[in-house]
Amino acid sequence: MISLGWWNLVIIITVAWFLKYNWRLDRDQTAWQNSLFLKHPAIQKFSQFCSRPMVNWIFQAVLILAVTRLLCYTIWLVYDLTNRPEPPYWDFKWFYVASKLAHEHLSPFNVEVFNQGFCRITKVCGLIPSFVYPPNIIPPIWFLGYFPMKTAFTIWIVLHLIATGFVLWGANILLESQSRAFRTICSISVAFLYGFVFDLQVGNVATFIAVLLLWMFILARKNRDLPAGILLGIALFKPTLVVLFIPYFIIKKRFSLVFVSIITAIILAWLGLAISGNSLTGFLQDAIRGFPLWLNDPSNNPYISMSRIDLRVVGPRFFPQSPFAAKLFSDLIILVLIGLVSWYFYRKQSRTAWSKNIDLPEMVLVYCLSIGINYSQPTSSVMLAPAVVFLLNDLYFQIKYCVFSGKRMSVWLLGVGCILVQTAVIHAGLLVFLGKRWNWKDGELPYLLKVTVFSLPSYAVLGITLSVLVLAMTSGQKQVVEFDRSPSSTN
Predict the structure, then answer these.
(1) CB 302 within 8 A of CB 316
(2) Nearest-5° angle of CA 388, CA 395, CA 407?
(3) What are the φ/ψ torsions at residue 423 (nearest 5 degrees)?
(4) Interval 375-425: pLDDT, tens
(5) For the residues of 394-461, what is the DSSP string, one character each?
(6) Looking at the DSSP assignment, which residues form a beta bridge with residue 423?
(7) Whole-structure pTM value
């Protein structure tokens, strides 16, 4: 619960003032007066219900308290993490130990070397999950090895906060509406994604990947392939979240962007191998040995993990006693999803004469597939920031230009509901709370909960992908409306 202390009261007042000042439609107010969407009886009844004094007050109070809660928790989390004697979680220690070993010209990719180094540097000994990142991660994390672990972790937290700010900035750039109300909603919705706070807490790199990919997309839309390719090449140090962007840009015939990204990744990988005193063959041998050990860790094993949000855990949860049926079921879901998205890409490219232009719906689908078909933890939900922007842009367009459609709004609400599953309210407040009641690392979760409640994040990724796909496929009238409103068509 929110404390009623002095500083919390100050934050509540500040948040209330900020929301009141920014809750304005500005130029959209006039444009929406003749909106056919808003004149629909269902929307009219909903607006009248929300305009009641008590309902309006409850809505404002909940919004103010929710935003205040997020700010207070984040401030407390940053204070708590920076005042601990050492980082509390594994993820940052992984990167710090890898950087330290690289400074000593030792290979962090070797299981024995990494385990010994982890024990020596962090004083935490035992069976440590192997370091399974590619060698191109070493240059980006090289700076960590210059500092004591506590100082390096503080710098890491500050970089996460800066990266989160850049994600919010990029999301607002992609937002079509210029009104303060829509931009405020966009910023709050993106910030509430569970991955941002969780990534800050455990010290992973998902937020950095989200920043690199988001600004890569912004630059690619402006045909600035060189900086966009460099950002994509840097982001390839976490290939599970990034690799699908390479075939996407090949389909879009953005070969220069792909070439720059591959060259960037190769240069970083070569530097990483050279710095860590390794070779390509040595790295491959270490990776082949280390990956199965890493996959058997309870947090990663699809048959045991409670935290994974990708679709590859769905089969193992339904068929824990049959590996063949489990793999077949997961692969079938993934293949159908890839097939639907590929069909959409083909139809769209055929209609646009294989255009090189980069569209937000396409990129959102690639983002969703990257989370859904590859290994993903809760930190990866930061990749859903563009999906939040897409849903807001779709609502903005519907209100401004279209007649209310119950079927289409149902699909939109499905997407919003699936986004809500990836917020701290449900993911941390519900799933983590329930998960603590069982020793999930020993596989003690009840089967019924495994395939229902604890699979909600995976189902949500599937639901977001399908809702974005349906909305993107049914928004073909958008180009027609915009063409009809263009100056040339009125002459």
Answers:
(1) yes
(2) 105
(3) -95, 165
(4) 899 999 999 999 999 999 999 888 888 888 888 999 999 999 999 999 988
(5) HHHHHHHH----HHHHHHHHHHHHHHHHTBTTTIIIIIIHHHTTS-GGGT-S-HHHHTTGGGHHHHHH
(6) 193
(7) 0.90
